[in-house]
Amino acid sequence: MQKIVPNIWCNGNAEEVGEFYASVFPTAHAEVESHYPHEGLLDFQQPLAGQPLTVGLTIAGTRLVLINAGDEFSPNPSVSFMLNFDPLLFDADEPAARARLDEVWEALSEQGSVMMPLQEYPFSKRYGWVQDRHGVSWQLMLTDPAGDPRPFLLPALMFCGTAQNMATQAVDHYLDVFREAGTDTELGMRVTYPAPQGPATTDSVMFSDFRLGDQWFTAMDSGVEQDFSFTCGMSLEVNCADQAEIDLLWGRLSAVPEAEQCGWLADFAGLSWQIVPARMAEIMQTPGAFERMMPMKKLVIAELEGASAG
After folding, report:
1. In a 3-state reduction of DSSP, which class is residue 97?
2. How far apart are CA 271 and CA 157, in angstroms?
3. Among residues 171, 197, 221, which one ends one of the domains?
4. pLDDT at residue 44, rounded to an integer
5. How high does pLDDT run on average in the chain?
6. 245 with 280, same domain?
7. 241 to 53, 64, 152, 276, 300: CA distances (angstroms)
8. What does the alpha-carbon distance between residue 157 and residue 171 come to, in Å, rounded to a whole number?
9. Percent of the chain with pLDDT over 70
Protein backbone atom coordinates (compact mmCIF):
# COMPACT_ATOMS: atom_id res chain seq x y z
CA MET A 1 0.00 0.00 0.00
CA GLN A 2 1.23 3.49 -0.87
CA LYS A 3 2.15 5.22 2.39
CA ILE A 4 1.33 8.83 1.48
CA VAL A 5 -1.52 9.59 -0.91
CA PRO A 6 -2.08 13.11 -2.28
CA ASN A 7 -5.74 14.12 -2.02
CA ILE A 8 -7.42 16.66 -4.31
CA TRP A 9 -10.56 18.49 -3.13
CA CYS A 10 -13.28 18.57 -5.81
CA ASN A 11 -16.44 20.66 -5.87
CA GLY A 12 -18.99 17.89 -6.39
CA ASN A 13 -17.36 16.72 -9.65
CA ALA A 14 -14.78 14.14 -8.56
CA GLU A 15 -16.02 11.58 -11.09
CA GLU A 16 -15.70 14.08 -13.93
CA VAL A 17 -12.22 15.10 -12.76
CA GLY A 18 -11.14 11.47 -12.58
CA GLU A 19 -12.43 10.76 -16.08
CA PHE A 20 -10.54 13.81 -17.37
CA TYR A 21 -7.18 12.65 -15.97
CA ALA A 22 -7.81 9.10 -17.16
CA SER A 23 -8.14 10.55 -20.67
CA VAL A 24 -5.02 12.71 -20.35
CA PHE A 25 -2.65 9.99 -19.14
CA PRO A 26 -2.70 6.80 -21.25
CA THR A 27 -1.98 4.48 -18.30
CA ALA A 28 -4.25 6.28 -15.80
CA HIS A 29 -7.29 4.67 -14.20
CA ALA A 30 -10.05 6.24 -12.10
CA GLU A 31 -12.93 4.65 -10.19
CA VAL A 32 -15.35 5.50 -7.39
CA GLU A 33 -14.07 3.90 -4.19
CA SER A 34 -16.54 5.02 -1.52
CA HIS A 35 -19.89 6.75 -1.08
CA TYR A 36 -21.37 9.08 1.50
CA PRO A 37 -23.78 7.26 3.83
CA HIS A 38 -27.43 8.25 3.99
CA GLU A 39 -27.32 8.82 7.75
CA GLY A 40 -24.97 10.58 10.19
CA LEU A 41 -24.13 13.45 7.85
CA LEU A 42 -23.69 17.03 8.98
CA ASP A 43 -26.16 19.58 7.62
CA PHE A 44 -23.83 20.84 4.89
CA GLN A 45 -23.22 17.25 3.75
CA GLN A 46 -26.89 16.33 3.34
CA PRO A 47 -26.97 17.11 -0.41
CA LEU A 48 -24.18 14.55 -0.85
CA ALA A 49 -26.04 11.65 0.80
CA GLY A 50 -25.44 8.49 -1.19
CA GLN A 51 -23.15 10.30 -3.63
CA PRO A 52 -19.53 9.32 -4.33
CA LEU A 53 -17.17 10.35 -1.53
CA THR A 54 -13.80 9.41 -2.99
CA VAL A 55 -12.54 8.57 -6.45
CA GLY A 56 -9.26 6.69 -6.69
CA LEU A 57 -6.92 7.80 -9.46
CA THR A 58 -3.73 6.00 -10.48
CA ILE A 59 -1.20 7.69 -12.78
CA ALA A 60 1.91 5.70 -13.74
CA GLY A 61 1.68 3.63 -10.58
CA THR A 62 1.12 6.58 -8.21
CA ARG A 63 -2.17 6.70 -6.35
CA LEU A 64 -4.11 9.94 -5.87
CA VAL A 65 -7.54 10.41 -4.29
CA LEU A 66 -10.20 12.87 -5.46
CA ILE A 67 -12.46 14.00 -2.61
CA ASN A 68 -16.04 14.77 -3.62
CA ALA A 69 -17.15 17.67 -1.43
CA GLY A 70 -18.43 21.25 -1.57
CA ASP A 71 -16.92 24.59 -2.53
CA GLU A 72 -15.21 25.18 0.82
CA PHE A 73 -11.74 24.60 -0.66
CA SER A 74 -10.07 24.27 -4.03
CA PRO A 75 -6.58 23.37 -5.25
CA ASN A 76 -3.97 26.05 -5.83
CA PRO A 77 -0.35 25.98 -7.08
CA SER A 78 1.18 25.70 -3.59
CA VAL A 79 0.90 21.95 -4.18
CA SER A 80 1.43 20.76 -7.73
CA PHE A 81 2.59 17.60 -9.44
CA MET A 82 6.00 17.32 -11.10
CA LEU A 83 5.94 15.04 -14.14
CA ASN A 84 9.32 13.66 -15.17
CA PHE A 85 9.41 12.76 -18.84
CA ASP A 86 12.60 10.73 -18.58
CA PRO A 87 13.34 8.74 -21.78
CA LEU A 88 14.44 5.80 -19.60
CA LEU A 89 11.04 5.70 -17.85
CA PHE A 90 9.29 5.43 -21.19
CA ASP A 91 11.84 3.05 -22.72
CA ALA A 92 12.13 5.61 -25.50
CA ASP A 93 14.55 8.14 -26.95
CA GLU A 94 14.46 11.86 -26.17
CA PRO A 95 12.29 12.89 -29.17
CA ALA A 96 9.66 10.30 -28.16
CA ALA A 97 9.68 11.50 -24.53
CA ARG A 98 9.40 15.10 -25.74
CA ALA A 99 6.43 14.17 -27.95
CA ARG A 100 4.64 12.54 -25.00
CA LEU A 101 5.30 15.62 -22.88
CA ASP A 102 3.82 17.86 -25.55
CA GLU A 103 0.69 15.70 -25.83
CA VAL A 104 0.06 15.83 -22.09
CA TRP A 105 0.77 19.58 -22.02
CA GLU A 106 -1.78 20.20 -24.77
CA ALA A 107 -4.47 18.25 -22.88
CA LEU A 108 -3.78 19.87 -19.49
CA SER A 109 -3.52 23.41 -20.84
CA GLU A 110 -6.82 23.28 -22.75
CA GLN A 111 -9.18 25.60 -20.81
CA GLY A 112 -6.41 25.99 -18.23
CA SER A 113 -3.88 28.74 -17.50
CA VAL A 114 -0.14 28.72 -18.17
CA MET A 115 2.04 29.67 -15.21
CA MET A 116 5.40 29.16 -16.97
CA PRO A 117 5.47 28.72 -20.76
CA LEU A 118 6.52 25.40 -22.25
CA GLN A 119 10.03 26.08 -23.52
CA GLU A 120 13.73 25.56 -22.80
CA TYR A 121 15.10 26.72 -19.44
CA PRO A 122 18.60 26.52 -17.91
CA PHE A 123 17.52 23.49 -15.87
CA SER A 124 15.69 21.60 -18.64
CA LYS A 125 15.52 21.41 -22.42
CA ARG A 126 11.74 21.48 -22.15
CA TYR A 127 9.67 22.55 -19.14
CA GLY A 128 6.31 24.18 -18.47
CA TRP A 129 3.97 24.80 -15.53
CA VAL A 130 0.23 24.81 -16.11
CA GLN A 131 -2.92 24.99 -13.98
CA ASP A 132 -5.58 22.84 -15.62
CA ARG A 133 -9.32 23.44 -15.98
CA HIS A 134 -9.95 21.92 -12.54
CA GLY A 135 -7.42 24.14 -10.76
CA VAL A 136 -4.75 21.45 -10.33
CA SER A 137 -1.19 22.50 -11.22
CA TRP A 138 1.31 20.38 -13.14
CA GLN A 139 5.00 20.90 -13.88
CA LEU A 140 6.11 19.00 -16.98
CA MET A 141 9.83 18.46 -17.43
CA LEU A 142 11.95 16.66 -20.00
CA THR A 143 14.40 14.95 -17.68
CA ASP A 144 18.06 14.20 -18.33
CA PRO A 145 18.37 10.39 -18.09
CA ALA A 146 21.94 10.80 -16.81
CA GLY A 147 20.64 12.25 -13.53
CA ASP A 148 19.50 10.38 -10.44
CA PRO A 149 16.37 8.34 -11.25
CA ARG A 150 13.06 9.71 -10.01
CA PRO A 151 9.47 8.48 -10.52
CA PHE A 152 7.22 9.94 -13.19
CA LEU A 153 4.97 11.82 -10.72
CA LEU A 154 6.19 13.68 -7.64
CA PRO A 155 4.05 15.91 -5.38
CA ALA A 156 5.69 19.36 -5.40
CA LEU A 157 5.40 21.77 -2.45
CA MET A 158 5.83 25.51 -3.02
CA PHE A 159 6.30 27.48 0.18
CA CYS A 160 4.78 30.88 -0.50
CA GLY A 161 2.40 33.43 1.01
CA THR A 162 2.24 32.82 4.76
CA ALA A 163 4.66 29.89 4.36
CA GLN A 164 7.28 31.83 2.38
CA ASN A 165 10.88 30.71 3.00
CA MET A 166 9.87 27.77 5.22
CA ALA A 167 10.98 25.04 2.79
CA THR A 168 14.19 24.06 4.60
CA GLN A 169 12.60 24.05 8.04
CA ALA A 170 9.56 22.14 6.85
CA VAL A 171 11.39 19.47 4.86
CA ASP A 172 13.87 18.85 7.68
CA HIS A 173 10.91 18.51 10.04
CA TYR A 174 9.12 16.01 7.79
CA LEU A 175 12.29 13.93 7.47
CA ASP A 176 12.74 13.86 11.25
CA VAL A 177 9.08 13.09 12.02
CA PHE A 178 8.74 10.22 9.58
CA ARG A 179 12.11 8.81 10.55
CA GLU A 180 10.96 8.79 14.18
CA ALA A 181 7.83 6.95 13.06
CA GLY A 182 9.98 4.19 11.55
CA THR A 183 9.93 5.32 7.91
CA ASP A 184 13.19 5.45 5.98
CA THR A 185 13.84 9.02 4.81
CA GLU A 186 16.39 10.78 2.63
CA LEU A 187 17.24 14.32 1.59
CA GLY A 188 18.17 14.40 -2.08
CA MET A 189 19.12 17.65 -3.78
CA ARG A 190 18.87 21.07 -2.09
CA VAL A 191 19.82 24.16 -4.09
CA THR A 192 19.43 27.68 -2.70
CA TYR A 193 18.90 30.90 -4.66
CA PRO A 194 22.22 32.32 -5.86
CA ALA A 195 20.88 35.86 -5.31
CA PRO A 196 17.76 37.36 -3.72
CA GLN A 197 14.71 36.96 -5.94
CA GLY A 198 11.41 38.54 -4.97
CA PRO A 199 10.58 37.34 -1.43
CA ALA A 200 13.29 34.65 -1.59
CA THR A 201 16.70 35.21 -0.01
CA THR A 202 20.00 33.44 -0.60
CA ASP A 203 18.99 31.06 2.22
CA SER A 204 15.74 30.18 0.46
CA VAL A 205 15.34 26.94 -1.48
CA MET A 206 15.21 27.23 -5.26
CA PHE A 207 14.74 23.46 -5.64
CA SER A 208 14.99 20.42 -3.41
CA ASP A 209 13.71 16.88 -3.31
CA PHE A 210 13.30 14.41 -0.48
CA ARG A 211 12.11 10.87 0.11
CA LEU A 212 9.65 9.57 2.69
CA GLY A 213 9.68 5.78 2.48
CA ASP A 214 9.46 4.83 -1.21
CA GLN A 215 8.03 8.19 -2.28
CA TRP A 216 9.79 11.27 -3.57
CA PHE A 217 8.58 14.85 -3.15
CA THR A 218 9.96 18.21 -4.25
CA ALA A 219 9.99 21.50 -2.34
CA MET A 220 10.87 25.10 -3.09
CA ASP A 221 10.42 28.64 -1.79
CA SER A 222 8.65 30.88 -4.28
CA GLY A 223 10.75 33.52 -6.00
CA VAL A 224 7.59 35.56 -6.68
CA GLU A 225 5.21 37.14 -4.17
CA GLN A 226 2.07 34.99 -3.99
CA ASP A 227 -1.31 35.72 -2.42
CA PHE A 228 -2.04 32.06 -1.68
CA SER A 229 -0.57 29.27 0.40
CA PHE A 230 -1.43 25.74 1.54
CA THR A 231 -5.10 24.82 2.12
CA CYS A 232 -7.24 21.69 2.41
CA GLY A 233 -7.65 21.91 -1.37
CA MET A 234 -4.59 19.67 -1.59
CA SER A 235 -3.65 17.41 1.31
CA LEU A 236 -1.40 14.46 2.05
CA GLU A 237 -3.09 11.35 3.46
CA VAL A 238 -0.81 9.11 5.53
CA ASN A 239 -1.80 5.45 5.94
CA CYS A 240 -0.69 4.42 9.44
CA ALA A 241 -0.05 0.86 10.58
CA ASP A 242 -1.52 1.31 14.06
CA GLN A 243 -2.69 3.76 16.71
CA ALA A 244 0.85 4.35 17.94
CA GLU A 245 1.87 5.70 14.54
CA ILE A 246 -1.25 7.86 14.34
CA ASP A 247 -0.48 9.28 17.79
CA LEU A 248 3.15 10.04 16.94
CA LEU A 249 2.49 11.71 13.59
CA TRP A 250 -0.46 13.67 14.97
CA GLY A 251 1.55 14.91 17.92
CA ARG A 252 4.56 15.94 15.82
CA LEU A 253 2.73 17.45 12.82
CA SER A 254 -0.39 19.19 14.13
CA ALA A 255 0.23 22.88 14.81
CA VAL A 256 -3.17 24.52 14.18
CA PRO A 257 -5.78 23.31 16.73
CA GLU A 258 -8.71 24.84 14.83
CA ALA A 259 -7.77 22.79 11.75
CA GLU A 260 -8.06 19.45 13.57
CA GLN A 261 -11.10 17.52 12.36
CA CYS A 262 -11.84 13.96 11.26
CA GLY A 263 -8.17 13.02 11.04
CA TRP A 264 -7.21 16.25 9.23
CA LEU A 265 -4.53 18.58 10.59
CA ALA A 266 -2.38 21.50 9.45
CA ASP A 267 1.33 21.68 10.25
CA PHE A 268 3.27 24.84 11.18
CA ALA A 269 3.58 25.84 7.51
CA GLY A 270 -0.15 25.30 6.92
CA LEU A 271 0.21 22.13 4.84
CA SER A 272 -2.80 19.83 5.31
CA TRP A 273 -2.35 16.20 6.28
CA GLN A 274 -4.83 13.37 6.87
CA ILE A 275 -3.54 10.91 9.46
CA VAL A 276 -5.61 7.77 9.06
CA PRO A 277 -5.39 4.02 9.74
CA ALA A 278 -4.28 1.95 6.76
CA ARG A 279 -7.52 -0.04 7.17
CA MET A 280 -9.64 3.11 6.87
CA ALA A 281 -11.68 1.89 3.90
CA GLU A 282 -12.55 -1.34 5.70
CA ILE A 283 -13.42 0.46 8.94
CA MET A 284 -15.66 3.01 7.22
CA GLN A 285 -17.79 0.28 5.65
CA THR A 286 -19.09 -0.73 9.08
CA PRO A 287 -22.42 0.66 10.31
CA GLY A 288 -22.11 3.88 12.30
CA ALA A 289 -18.41 4.44 11.61
CA PHE A 290 -18.94 7.63 9.60
CA GLU A 291 -21.18 9.14 12.27
CA ARG A 292 -18.69 8.20 14.99
CA MET A 293 -15.86 9.80 13.06
CA MET A 294 -17.49 13.19 12.47
CA PRO A 295 -16.90 14.69 15.96
CA MET A 296 -13.36 13.28 16.21
CA LYS A 297 -10.20 15.30 15.77
CA LYS A 298 -7.41 12.71 15.94
CA LEU A 299 -8.80 9.37 14.80
CA VAL A 300 -8.90 6.63 17.43
CA ILE A 301 -9.10 3.21 15.83
CA ALA A 302 -10.69 1.50 18.84
CA GLU A 303 -13.53 4.03 18.90
CA LEU A 304 -14.12 3.74 15.18
CA GLU A 305 -14.25 -0.03 15.46
CA GLY A 306 -16.43 0.25 18.55
CA ALA A 307 -19.07 1.86 16.37
CA SER A 308 -19.24 -1.33 14.31
CA ALA A 309 -19.45 -3.43 17.45
CA GLY A 310 -22.68 -1.91 18.49
Report:
1. helix
2. 9
3. 221
4. 76
5. 94
6. yes
7. 23, 19, 26, 9, 13
8. 10
9. 99
In a domain, 268, yes or no: yes
Q: How many structural domains compose the chain?
A: 2
- Give the residues across from 19 on adjacent strands: none
CA 154 distance to own-chain centroid: 9
The DSSP bridge pattern shows strands 205-212 and 215-221 to be: antiparallel
Coil, helix or strand at residue 79: strand
pLDDT confidence of residue 30: 98
3-class SS of residue 178: helix
Residue 161: strand, helix, or coil: helix
Residue 179 lies in a domain: yes
The answer on pLDDT for 194 being more than 60 is: yes
HSE value, Cβ hemisphere, 13 Å, CA-based, for 262 = 11
User: Which string of b and e fits 66-90 if b means at least 16 CB within 10 Å?
Assistant: bbbbeeebbbbbbbbbbbbbbbebe
In whole angstroms, what is the distance from residue 26 CA to residue 143 CA?
Answer: 19
Range of the domain at 94: 79-221
